[in-house]
C-alpha cells in the first residue's frame, strides 16, 4: 500500500567508492538488471537507506524481483559486516514484498483443475508465512540492536500482514498504534477503514476514506473506491457510482473502478423500466468495463467471477470454466468462493460432467447452505441421476426453516417432484405428497399475484419480472396443477386448464398458417412484438408438422420473421434469419433484397448493388425486384442508369407496370426541371420532358385509378404549370391572365393533394400543399402546411421545408409590412444554415432578409415602428453588408448566386445605411413627441382625477358635518328630555304626598258617614287621568328624542293597569253590557305611575 507522487526532476543517489570516486545513480533511468547496482552497493559499503531507496525505486517501477534481490543482498552484506542492527528496514521491505507476491498468488490450488492449472504455484499462505518470518527477523534485529521495535514502518508492515491474513483485531490494534502517534498516516487510515468496512461499520469507514482523500487526493489504492463501496452499502447508489467514475478519471489504468462500474452497469441493465436499447447499451458497457478490469489484473477473483458469468451467457464454456477455476483459486472471501464453485458447477453441468458438477455444487453448499442457485443446480443434477428423494431433500432444506429462502423456481421444482409418483411410496404417503404439492403450487401462484399487484396494481402478468413471467406462463406447470386438482376440485382444475390453453394458443399450438396470417396483420399495424411472437409460434408449429408439410410454410414464415426483426431495429437477428433462409433457399430473392436494403442503410452501397445484381441474374423478369433496383438507383443518386433501367423495364418486360410508369414520370420531370439549358433547343427538350412526365402519370392512373403517387405527380405538374411557362411555353400576353391561370392551377392541385393526403401519410404532401397556397398568396395557410410537414414528419431537420417556411414568412412580412414576420423568416433561414453550413445560397438569403428588414422599416411611418426595432434592423443590415461583401468576393468557380447582384446589394446597403442616423433621429423625435403627448394626457388625467377626489372629499366632509350637527341636536334633545323627566318625577312625588293627605281626609269623611262629597270625590279622581295623559306625552317626547337609548334598552312589557272605578263608570255599566270591574288601590304607589309612563 503506497501512494503516488510524481518523481522530482533529476533524482539521483551518490555512492562513494574508496577515496575520492563518487558514482551517481540516476533513479529515473534504472537498468532492469540490478547486478551493476549491487556491485556498487557492496563496494561502496552503503548505508541501509541507500539500499532501501534503490530497492523501493525498483519496486515502484514494477521490478519486484530486482527489489527483492537487492534486499536479500543487503541482508547478506550487512550480516557479513556484522551490522545486523541496521537491517529492520530491509526486513520490513522484504515482508512487504512477500505480501505483494501474495496478492498475485492463489489462495488454494485445485488439484483437478481442467483449464486453470496452477500446480506448483506458491499459495498466499506461503507468502504470508515468509512475510511473518521477515517481520520476526526484523524485530529480532531491532532488539539485538538495542531498539524496542522497528518503529512506524514495522507497525504498518505488521498491520498490513495481519489484515491480509484476516486477523482483523490484531491489524486494528497495529493501525491504531500508528495513528496514535501520527493521526494523518495514510496507510494506517486506509487499513483501519478497510477493517471497519469489513465489520459493516460503513459510516465510520466512509469518514476515514474521505479523510484519506483529503490528505492525499491521488493516493493508490484510491480511497474513492472505498468511498463508493460505503455509499453503495448505505444505499446511495448514484453517489457511489459518481465516486467510482471520479476514481476512473483520476486513475484510468486502475482496475477496481472499472470492475465496480462494470458490475453497476450490468445490474442497471436488468431494470425492467428501461427500454431494450437502453438495456443492451448498459449491458454492453458493463461487459467492456469488466473485460478491461480483468485484463488489467488477471489474478482478481472478483473480475474473473464477473467475466465468467458473461462467457456463460455467450456459451463459451471452456473460457467460462477457466475463469470459474480462477475465481475459486484466487477468492479471498466466502461469497466469491461460493460463486466460483457455483459457476464451475454450471459449466460442468452444461457439458454433462455430472459427477464433477455435483462436487462443485456440494462445495458451494458447504460455504452457503441456503444459496438458491446452488441448491437448484444440485437438485437438477440429482434428478438427472434419478435421485428424486435426494433432490426433494435438497430443495426442502432450502425452503424450510431456519432461514427459509423465497424462491418461486425452487418451490415449483419441489411441488413438481412431490406431485410426481415415485416407486416405493405408499398410497397414503402419495396422497400426502400431492397435498403438499398443491400447497406449494398455491403458494407460488399467490406470490406471483402479490408481485404483480405490487408492480402494476392489476392482474396482468406483463408487470412481472422475466423469471416470474416464465413461471406463470409455464404450460406444464398449469397442466400439473390441473392433474393435482382433478380429484379434489373441478373448478380449480378447469381454471388451471383454461390458463394452460390460453398459453398454449399463444405459444403456437394451432395451425401454423393461421398464426402466420395473424403475425402479418400485427406487422401491418406496426405491432411488431405481437407479430414477432406469432411468426415464431408459427415456425415452431410448422416444424412440429414434419419436413414434408412444414418446410413449405416455414419459408415465408421465416422471411416474415426476419422482416419484423428488421423493422424492430434488431439488425443482427434479421441478418441471421435472412442468412438461414438463404442457406435453405439460395434463390429466394426477397431475402436478398432485404439484405441489400440493410446494407444500403449503413452506406455499403457497393455490397448492396452486388446482391441486387445477383438477384437480377437469377430472376430478371421479377417486377418487384426491378422496381426495387430502380428505387435503389434513384436513392444512390444515379439518375441516368435509373432512367435506362426503368425504360428497359417498360419496353422489354411490362409496359403497363404502374411502379415503372410512376418512376419514369418522376425521372422525366426532375430531369426537365433541373435542366439549365437556356437555348431554344433546351426549352423544347424541357417542354418535351414535362409532357412525357405527364403522360407517364396519366397512363399509371389509367392502369390504377387509385394510385396516389401518380395523382400527386400530376398535381405537381399542374401546380407548377410544367406544360406552360415552366416548360418554356409562350407566356400569356396579359399578366392578369397569367396570374389567374396560376391561381386556377394551384386550386386544382390543392384539390388533388387533399385527396392524396387521405391515402399517403407523408410530409411531401403537406409541402406540396404549402407550395400551392404560396402560389395563391395565402401565406398563412402555406406556413401552416410547411409547419405540419416540418414538425410532424421531419422533426425540424428538413432544409428545403425550412427554406420554404423562410420564403413564406418573408412574403408575409412584405405584404403586412411586419418586422416581426421578417425576424421569423430570418430565424428559419438561420436554422437551415445550421443544418447546411456550407450552403452559400442560404447565406445570400440571410443577407437579403436582413437588408430588406431595414429597408422596410425605413419606409414605414414612424408610428408603425419602434426605436428598438430600428436599431436592431440597422445592426442586421450592417451584418448583411459583411455577408454581401464576402459573397461578392467569393472566388469559387461555381456559386448559386450572382456576384454582381451581391455587390450591387452591398452598394445599395451602403447608401441605405447612410440615412440610418437620420431615420433614428426622426424616430427618436417622433417617440419623444409621442411620449410628451402621452405624458401630457396622463398629467391631465391625473389633474382630473385629483379634482374629482377633492370634490368627493368636500362632499364627504359636508356629510360629516351634517351628521355631527344632527348628533349634537339629538344630544341636546336627550338632555332636555332628561331634565323634563327629572322635574316630572319631583312633581309626582309632591302629588303623592297630596294624595295621601286626601285619602286620609276622605277616610275621615267616610267615617263620619257623609255622602254628599261623592261628586267632588269623583272630580278629584279624574285628575290623575289628566296627569297620566301629560305623563304619556312626556314619555312620547322622550321616546322621540332618545331613540339611541331605546335601542340600547330592552322594551319593557306593559303590565295590566288597574282601573279606578268612577261614578260615571257605574252609570255606564247600568245602561250597557256589564264589563268585568276591578277595584283600584286606595292609594296609588310609585309603581303605578311608572306603569302609566311606560
CATH topology of the domain at 759-939: Serine Threonine Protein Phosphatase 5, Tetratricopeptide repeat
Strand content: under 5%
Q: Rg, please?
A: 54 Å
β-strand number: 2
What structural category characterises the helix and strand content? mainly alpha
Region (Disordered): 930-954, 980-1094
GO molecular function: RNA polymerase II complex binding
InterPro entries: Ctr9, TPR-like_helical_dom_sf, TPR_rpt
Protein name: RNA polymerase II-associated protein
Describe this structure in words.
Residues 995-1004, 1051-1060 have a biased composition (Basic residues). Keywords: Repeat, TPR repeat. Residues 1085-1094 have a biased composition (Acidic residues). One of its GO terms (molecular function) is RNA polymerase II complex binding. The protein is mainly α. Among the domains are: 478-585, Tetratricopeptide repeat domain (Serine Threonine Protein Phosphatase 5, Tetratricopeptide repeat, Alpha Horseshoe); 586-641, no CATH class; 656-758, no CATH class; 759-939, Alpha Horseshoe (Serine Threonine Protein Phosphatase 5, Tetratricopeptide repeat), CATH 1.25.40. Strands 1-2 form a two-stranded antiparallel ribbon. The model is unreliable at 1-10, 457-462, 729-733 and 1009-1094 (pLDDT under 50).
Amino acid at each position: 500500500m503506497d501512494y503516488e507522487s510524481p518523481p522530482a526532476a533529476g533524482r539521483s543517489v551518490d555512492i562513494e567508492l574508496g577515496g575520492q570516486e563518487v558514482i551517481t545513480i540516476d533513479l529515473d533511468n534504472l537498468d532492469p538488471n540490478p547486478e551493476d547496482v549491487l556491485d556498487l552497493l557492496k563496494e561502496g559499503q552503503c548505508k541501509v537507506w541507500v539500499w532501501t531507496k534503490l530497492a523501493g525505486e525498483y519496486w515502484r517501477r514494477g521490478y519486484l524481483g530486482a527489489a527483492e534481490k537487492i534486499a536479500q543482498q543487503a541482508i547478506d552484506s550487512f550480516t557479513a559486516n556484522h551490522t545486523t542492527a541496521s537491517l529492520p528496514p530491509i526486513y520490513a521491505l522484504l515482508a512487504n514484498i512477500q505480501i505483494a507476491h501474495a496478492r498475485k498468488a492463489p489462495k488454494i490450488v485445485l488439484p483437478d483443475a481442467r483449464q486453470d492449472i496452477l500446480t506448483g504455484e506458491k499459495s498466499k499462505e506461503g507468502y504470508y508465512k515468509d512475510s511473518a518470518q521477515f517481520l520476526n527477523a526484523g524485530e529480532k534485529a531491532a532488539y539485538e540492536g538495542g531498539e524496542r521495535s522497528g518503529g512506524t514502518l514495522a507497525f504498518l508492515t505488521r498491520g498490513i500482514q495481519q489484515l491480509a491474513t484476516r486477523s482483523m483485531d490484531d491489524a486494528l490494534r497495529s493501525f491504531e498504534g500508528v495513528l496514535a502517534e501520527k493521526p494523518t498516516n495514510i496507510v494506517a487510515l486506509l487499513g483501519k477503514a478497510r477493517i471497519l468496512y469489513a465489520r459493516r461499520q460503513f459510516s465510520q469507514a466512509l469518514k476515514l476514506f474521505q479523510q484519506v482523500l483529503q490528505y492525499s487526493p491521488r493516493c493508490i489504492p484510491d480511497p474513492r473506491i472505498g468511498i463508493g463501496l460505503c455509499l453503495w452499502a448505505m444505499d446511495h447508489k448514484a453517489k457511489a457510482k459518481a465516486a467510482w467514475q471520479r476514481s476512473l478519471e483520476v486513475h484510468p489504468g486502475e482496475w477496481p473502478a472499472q470492475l465496480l462500474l462494470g458490475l453497476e452497469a450490468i445490474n442497471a441493465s436488468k431494470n425492467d423500466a428501461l427500454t431494450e436499447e437502453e438495456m443492451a447499451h448498459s449491458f454492453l458497457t458493463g461487459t467492456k468495463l469488466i473485460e478491461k478490469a480483468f485484463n488489467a489484473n488477471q489474478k482478481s477473483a472478483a473480475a474473473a467471477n464477473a467475466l465468467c458469468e458473461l462467457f456463460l451467457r455467450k456459451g463459451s464454456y471452456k473460457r467460462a470454466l477457466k475463469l470459474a477455476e480462477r475465481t475459486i483459486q484466487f477468492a479471498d472471501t466466502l461469497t466469491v468462493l461460493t460463486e466460483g464453485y457455483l459457476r464451475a458447477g454450471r459449466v460442468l453441468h452444461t457439458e454433462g460432467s455430472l459427477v464433477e458438477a455435483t462436487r462443485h455444487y456440494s462445495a458451494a453448499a458447504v460455504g452457503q447452505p441456503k444459496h438458491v442457485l446452488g441448491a437448484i443446480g444440485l437438485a437438477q443434477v440429482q434428478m438427472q441421476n434419478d435421485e428424486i428423494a435426494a433432490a426433494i431433500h435438497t430443495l426442502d432444506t432450502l425452503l424450510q426453516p431456519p432461514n427459509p429462502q423465497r424462491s418461486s423456481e425452487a418451490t415449483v421444482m419441489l411441488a413438481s417432484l412431490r406431485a410426481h409418483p415415485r416407486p416405493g411410496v405408499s398410497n397414503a404417503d402419495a396422497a400426502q405428497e400431492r397435498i403438499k404439492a398443491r400447497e406449494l403450487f398455491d403458494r407460488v401462484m399467490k406470490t406471483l399475484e402479490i408481485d404483480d399487484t405490487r408492480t402494476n396494481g392489476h392482474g396482468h402478468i406483463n408487470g412481472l419480472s422475466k423469471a416470474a413471467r416464465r413461471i406463470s406462463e409455464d404450460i406444464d406447470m398449469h397442466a400439473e396443477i390441473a392433474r393435482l386438482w382433478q380429484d379434489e376440485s373441478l373448478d380449480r382444475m378447469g381454471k388451471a386448464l383454461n390458463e394452460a390453453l390460453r398459453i398454449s394458443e399463444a405459444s403456437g399450438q394451432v395451425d401454423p398458417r393461421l398464426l402466420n396470417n395473424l403475425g402479418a396483420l400485427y406487422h401491418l399495424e406496426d405491432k411488431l412484438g405481437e407479430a414477432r411472437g406469432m411468426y415464431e409460434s408459427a415456425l415452431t408449429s410448422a416444424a412440429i408438422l414434419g419436413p414434408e408439410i412444414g418446410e413449405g410454410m416455414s419459408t415465408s414464415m421465416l422471411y416474415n420473421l426476419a422482416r419484423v426483426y428488421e423493422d424492430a431495429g434488431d439488425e443482427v437477428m434479421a441478418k441471421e434469419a435472412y442468412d438461414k433462409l438463404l442457406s435453405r433457399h439460395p434463390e429466394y430473392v426477397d431475402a436478398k433484397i432485404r439484405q441489400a436494403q440493410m446494407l444500403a442503410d449503413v452506406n455499403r452501397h457497393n455490397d448492396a448493388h452486388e446482391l441486387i445484381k445477383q438477384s437480377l441474374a437469377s430472376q430478371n423478369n421479377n417486377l418487384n425486384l426491378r422496381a426495387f433496383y430502380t428505387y435503389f438507383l434513384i436513392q444512390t443518386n444515379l439518375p441516368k442508369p435509373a432512367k435506362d433501367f426503368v425504360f428497359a423495364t417498360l419496353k422489354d418486360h411490362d409496359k403497363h407496370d404502374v411502379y415503372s410508369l410512376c418512376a419514369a414520370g418522376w425521372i422525366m420531370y426532375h430531369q426537365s426541371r433541373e435542366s439549365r439549358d437556356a437555348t431554344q433547343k433546351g426549352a423544347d427538350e424541357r417542354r418535351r420532358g414535362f409532357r412525357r412526365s405527364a403522360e407517364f402519370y396519366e397512363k399509371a392512373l389509367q392502369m390504377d385509378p387509385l394510385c396516389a403517387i401518380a395523382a400527386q405527380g400530376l398535381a405537381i405538374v399542374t401546380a407548377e404549370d410544367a406544360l406552360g411557362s415552366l416548360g418554356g411555353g409562350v407566356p400569356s400576353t396579359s399578366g392578369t391572365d397569367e396570374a389567374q391561370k396560376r391561381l386556377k392551377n394551384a386550386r386544382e392541385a390543392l384539390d388533388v393533394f387533399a385527396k392524396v393526403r387521405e391515402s399517403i401519410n407523408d410530409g411531401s404532401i403537406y409541402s406540396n400543399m404549402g407550395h400551392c397556397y404560396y402560389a395563391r398568396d395565402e401565406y398563412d395557410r402555406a406556413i401552416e402546411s410547411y409547419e405540419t410537414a416540418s414538425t410532424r414528419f421531419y422533426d425540424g431537420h428538413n432544409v428545403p421545408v425550412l427554406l420554404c417556411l423562410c420564403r413564406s414568412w418573408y412574403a408575409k412580412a412584405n405584404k403586412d409590412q411586419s418586422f416581426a414576420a421578417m425576424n421569423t423568416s430570418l430565424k428559419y433561414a438561420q436554422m437551415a444554415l445550421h443544418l447546411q453550413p456550407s450552403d452559400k445560397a442560404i447565406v445570400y438569403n440571410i443577407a437579403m432578409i436582413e437588408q430588406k428588414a431595414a429597408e422596410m422599416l425605413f419606409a414605414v411611418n414612424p408610428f408603425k415602428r419602434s426605436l428598438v426595432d430600428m436599431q436592431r434592423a440597422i445592426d442586421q443590415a450592417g451584418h448583411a453588408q459583411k455577408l454581401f461583401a464576402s459573397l461578392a468576393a467569393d472566388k469559387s468557380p461555381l456559386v448559386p448566386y450572382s456576384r454582381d447582384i451581391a455587390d450591387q446589394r452591398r452598394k445599395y446597403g451602403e447608401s441605405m445605411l447612410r440615412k440610418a442616423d437620420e431615420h433614428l433621429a426622426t424616430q427618436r423625435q417622433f417617440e419623444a413627441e409621442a411620449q410628451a403627448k402621452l405624458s401630457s394626457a396622463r398629467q391631465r388625467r391625473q389633474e382630473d382625477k385629483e379634482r374629482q377626489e377633492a370634490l368627493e372629499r368636500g362632499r364627504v366632509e359636508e356629510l360629516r358635518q351634517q351628521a355631527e350637527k344632527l348628533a349634537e341636536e339629538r344630544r341636546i334633545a336627550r338632555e332636555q328630555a332628561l331634565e323634563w323627566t327629572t322635574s316630572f318625577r319631583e312633581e309626582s312625588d309632591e302629588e303623592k304626598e297630596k294624595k295621601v293627605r286626601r285619602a286620609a281626609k276622605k277616610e275621615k269623611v267616610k267615617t263620619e258617614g257623609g255622602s254628599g262629597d261623592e261628586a267632588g270625590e269623583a272630580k278629584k279622581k279624574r285628575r290623575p287621568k289628566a296627569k297620566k295623559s301629560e305623563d304619556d306625552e312626556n314619555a312620547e317626547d322622550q321616546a322621540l328624542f332618545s331613540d339611541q337609548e331605546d335601542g340600547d334598552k330592552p322594551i319593557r312589557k306593559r303590565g295590566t293597569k288597574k282601573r279606578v272605578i268612577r261614578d260615571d263608570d257605574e252609570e255606564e255599566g247600568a245602561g250597557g253590557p256589564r264589563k268585568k270591574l276591578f277595584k283600584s288601590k286606595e292609594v296609588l304607589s310609585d309603581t303605578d305611575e311608572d306603569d302609566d309612563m311606560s
